[in-house]
Design a protein that fits this description.
0% helix; five-stranded mixed β-sheet
């Protein structure tokens, strides 16, 4: 998995990409899932929060790049004052076929 950059400002975006390969001998499908973790929020946040997914079909031996767009809107939550905010800090991005099998990278929201 890779990110197109490691920092994002409050009106920017980051693209997270992963290459999925069908290593089997039969055609198949996969649901690629995007999870985000806010490492430094002012309140307790989930360890992995599902923020997107894409179902793809792959022929035997085929590979496909799946890209997710991460914007500040995806990072927002309700703080202790019930304000819908995206707080600056570090975030882990995780992509995989399930929450237990992910590749991860980190970026910073300025």
């Amino acid at each position: 998995m890779k990110l197109n950059k490691n920092e994002m400002n409050s009106n920017g975006e980051i693209k997270a990409s992963v290459t999925v390969t069908n290593s089997g001998k039969a055609d198949g499908a996969e649901v690629v899932q995007l999870y985000i973790r806010d490492l430094v929020a002012s309140i307790s946040r989930p360890l992995k929060e599902l923020k997107g997914f894409e179902k793809i079909k792959l022929k035997a031996g085929e590979s496909q790049v799946v890209t997710f767009k991460i914007t500040p809107e995806l990072l927002k939550f309700y703080n202790s004052n019930l304000e819908h905010v995206a707080e600056p800090g570090d975030f882990d991005v995780m992509i995989g076929g399930s929450s237990n099998d992910v590749k991860s990278a980190r970026f910073t929201l300025q």
